[in-house]
Predict the 3D structure of the following.
Amino acid sequence: MAVPQLSQQSASGKSMFFTSDNWAGAHPRICEHLDRVAAGFSPAYGTSDFDNDVARRFSEIFEKEVAVFFVGTGTAANSLSLASIQRPGGAVFCHTEAHVVEDECGAPEFFSGMKMVPVHGPSGRMDIAELRTAMAAFPQDAVHHGRAAAITVTQATEMGTVYSLDEIEAIGQIARDGGVALHMDGARFANALAALDTTPAEMTWRRGVDVLSFGATKNGCWCAEAIVFFNPVFATDMPFIRKRAAQLFSKSRFIAAQFDAYLADDLWLKLAGHANRMADRLRRGLAATSSARLAWETVTNEVFAIVPRVQAEAAIAKGARFYDWPVPAAMKDQVSNTETLIRLVTSFATTEEQVEALLSALK
Amino acid sequence: MAVPQLSQQSASGKSMFFTSDNWAGAHPRICEHLDRVAAGFSPAYGTSDFDNDVARRFSEIFEKEVAVFFVGTGTAANSLSLASIQRPGGAVFCHTEAHVVEDECGAPEFFSGMKMVPVHGPSGRMDIAELRTAMAAFPQDAVHHGRAAAITVTQATEMGTVYSLDEIEAIGQIARDGGVALHMDGARFANALAALDTTPAEMTWRRGVDVLSFGATKNGCWCAEAIVFFNPVFATDMPFIRKRAAQLFSKSRFIAAQFDAYLADDLWLKLAGHANRMADRLRRGLAATSSARLAWETVTNEVFAIVPRVQAEAAIAKGARFYDWPVPAAMKDQVSNTETLIRLVTSFATTEEQVEALLSALK
Amino acid sequence: MAVPQLSQQSASGKSMFFTSDNWAGAHPRICEHLDRVAAGFSPAYGTSDFDNDVARRFSEIFEKEVAVFFVGTGTAANSLSLASIQRPGGAVFCHTEAHVVEDECGAPEFFSGMKMVPVHGPSGRMDIAELRTAMAAFPQDAVHHGRAAAITVTQATEMGTVYSLDEIEAIGQIARDGGVALHMDGARFANALAALDTTPAEMTWRRGVDVLSFGATKNGCWCAEAIVFFNPVFATDMPFIRKRAAQLFSKSRFIAAQFDAYLADDLWLKLAGHANRMADRLRRGLAATSSARLAWETVTNEVFAIVPRVQAEAAIAKGARFYDWPVPAAMKDQVSNTETLIRLVTSFATTEEQVEALLSALK
Amino acid sequence: MAVPQLSQQSASGKSMFFTSDNWAGAHPRICEHLDRVAAGFSPAYGTSDFDNDVARRFSEIFEKEVAVFFVGTGTAANSLSLASIQRPGGAVFCHTEAHVVEDECGAPEFFSGMKMVPVHGPSGRMDIAELRTAMAAFPQDAVHHGRAAAITVTQATEMGTVYSLDEIEAIGQIARDGGVALHMDGARFANALAALDTTPAEMTWRRGVDVLSFGATKNGCWCAEAIVFFNPVFATDMPFIRKRAAQLFSKSRFIAAQFDAYLADDLWLKLAGHANRMADRLRRGLAATSSARLAWETVTNEVFAIVPRVQAEAAIAKGARFYDWPVPAAMKDQVSNTETLIRLVTSFATTEEQVEALLSALK
């Protein structure tokens, strides 16, 4: 066993990794807690008192009795959530850029047997009118075309924005009116919560959310995702759906432990707040330069900027890492041939020094 | 966050947990290494140099270029292995007590679309003649009945025994003759290897194994399973099969790290050897008593014993934990009404003191 | 277009086809009615008044409001029936020789996502005690092993026998006690009904059957199968399940027409009665010979006989056609090496002359 | 059994059914041939000489050795075609209005496990440039997003148009360049062939088509669809895929018989030619009126016209039947609020008198 050669440093000795929040590792308090539960014996498959205690924390946090199921990946959380609310011939409405339709290799369709129907909307948010129109094409008796079965919103969105509470409420109303379930992909739930400065209850079931993918992996854990049911009816089959999906971990207490540390002392909110602040610092830094401009306003831990291509390449040469992002159709004429749209993601592990190093490299 | 209340101790202060090896936690060297990789940034989804380095370790260990895919659970390793060698209308031959057919809630069928065909045999091993007979009923043109597609052997078996190298070779020959793939469920691979005192290569591809579920979770890791392809043809679709199955972990380096520490300095073999020795000590202790007797010979980390029911209950009252095991049909007349068959599992974490405590409690 | 060269005659000019009732064609009254509906226009996909009228006939016949769905094959009827009563991680209990587990290439598992659990029993009927035992191994909280979801009985069975009304009632009670659904595979429903001399209602829902595969193909139609729901709850999703399964026929009226003629003037019962009588004649003929003996008593349109192998071969040389049948394990010592077990199936199209020709050929 | 009350006549005694070609029945020569094969006995499940003879006809017609599989519905033909060329994580490119994505309730996704990616293009044909762009987003290593696996073209399209031979060739080239298979949904294959006045070979494999759904149901049969493989590699698993999909008919000779009559003496081309001519007559009649105008040019058996809403309603009141059709986005400003877009479908059974009656009713 060698010392692992992670990419933690650039050649210059400065870390400038803004590729994704899943390039970060795990927070020390998560690690410490994992070490703590590593000793001794404990009932397997999530049946220990410890697992149950941690699961109960979710009911406190959400101010409501909820059913909680731990799984290993965000894709699993989304896919099994949708499987739990599936209808044969069902359609799931999501934003065109949603992770479920763009980045999960068909897992949501595979597990739920449903099809994803993309709905346009600016800045990663479904347009309410477009959503209504899309759903109208899938009435409950549409045997040939398929019927509406669920709506899924991503909070925070793939573009770093958030749905306002009113928007969630409106979508929740559309779901109720249409007799379908509302799922929230909360891979960056904490970042959205911090940005909106609201409570978990307000951002979910009080606005009509039935099932939530509660992600912790991107925000300081290494493998901790929870499916949270606000509507117990949908949870009935989940023990079997999860096991059949190979997502019931034998040493489940290690997921529980991550959540235990994550939720304690508001660590999760602090980490998300930090990531958001780092993004804000980056945003302000970019806004202050003459050559870069923000592609759209984001309020969480992702910044999208339009920069001269040469500048982006120079930054990469200096050790910076980030992804180019496809230019949305509606913005094509705002980005010149010599420019590129880049995505910069901060995380709990991003430091002010790293932000400054990037800003400097991008100049 | 409270100190987790794990079941690490009995009321008497003595730990006597022999329920399963997945009741153990994680070995300190695994934990230390997880902590080590927790800092810094690293490419996600298994694409970092570190992930690749660890994957390459498997080629050294197996003395052959292999393709390796990390997943999160043993059920995933088995199910996706079978999915990679699937044939529409295919049948998979396994022992009647195999994990894939008894304990995975239909996951192998769900992911592979194939049916499990149970084959009898004593002590957890398929009888070679029965396997031939079973396969003969599924010729390659059996459109109605289904066709043979794979054989899966569990090494070590669910009953603590192992297939000898000759037996694996014979089954490998049957697979080749039938034109089907051979999969090995190695959830307790290290325990079998230690028991047979052979090499990974000898126990697998040199005997005809095409795909292996290489389990590390039960033997000191907390979440580390690898699918190992000796035949690269079968690996072609696996990147997509794994992602669609929600088994591609974003912070995959944490699985890699577990394997890195697990495979370093033969830790895996030492831990398995220890577990086997603890089982042997337990076995000898039971054999020395007048009231208990061994149900069958086991050579790995599981001991099956027939004990008076009152004695078993007394031990439980003293804090011992273990499972009753269904009496195999062929043994019905060897177990009286006042007796029970119990399974006792040791692990890397089992101590001599715990073994003695259990022996004492069972007296 | 040539005159189709069907195998309707042996070399000797005598037809002796006892291979299966699906080797027969279609009854003239079925054909005439198909011709009748061929002209003109009619709403597609089963929405015409004619389709609805025929569907309503089932409610009369079963003396209860039922939901009816036409499909194209018996495998579809069984598989979609099971899909409609599926539970994730569910187990379906059937006889070891049942069509769903032996002859449908995994279609029931494919469509329902459930596993088939074979239950032994003599003469094609599940043993009640064995059924209870089998179900006890799949309690509703068995997340690892799977949970009971349905029982399926074949009436008449694959071995030409029938469950008595009391037996169906007993199985219906087991289903209710276990909280699972009861499905009946009625591929030879009419033959069973004729043999028991009872009513459709008595043989189904009054004994606890929830869903029925009502087969007409083997008994004079060429492509007419209906899924009949006695419990409307299970029918809710069926329109979508059927369409997604590619079993909604655009010119559905042609299936309706077959059923219309089939059910009119008790044609279906007359045809089944005829087939049963032909089998009885065959049975009596065989019993009267010295060399053949009946393998077990059958009461419908299938006769199983043990005959000297040379005699069977001689009959085949004379143009007779039938299948060898695997000797059940319990009968191994009753069939000598020089003998073979053969299955002889009669149908609506079988004539007395054909029966006599076969008896003569087998002498 | 009553005389079936089909909707063959309007109140006025004139039949004006232009809803769909699947509202028609079956051609007399199809019916006669079905009657012919109804007598006698024949091996089941498509294994008779007759079945094989008919299957061989396809090799003659396509001037190439092809593998042919009969199934019961067009949805089955499409879905199983795609299942035979599936790749895990695969994407199938089709027109936005294609039947596979709009009208089959997710069956293609259900059977193939792949996702449909809609590609825009005028008049029901994928735009070549858009197809290239769409495919470029699914490269073969796109584990997250998914990889291209197949293209499917509908010939004739859902909008009554056809791809020219050059267009098929261009798409075939894109398929080869991208390493994916090309499927053709030929639910109205004969209508397209008649319109293009070409040969089956020229319209398919000579232009790069690998698999064809050869539909006969809409054009004079009642239940006859064939999957035709030009590339034998893709056919390997089809016997099992078909059986597991519940699409292997026991009395398969009745499907064979339909094809036998359909293909004999060019009946299929004559029927399609007739339907196309009736559409042309209708088209010319509409063009000659002042109030109706053609929505776009069609060359097969579907006419799309924009008519005043009051006129459409008046025609319906007189007994005419047809569907409103959604106005394509690109045409929104060409259809006023008082107008409606209607689809008029002719078939082999449409008569000149019916066309004149409709024209008259629409005036």
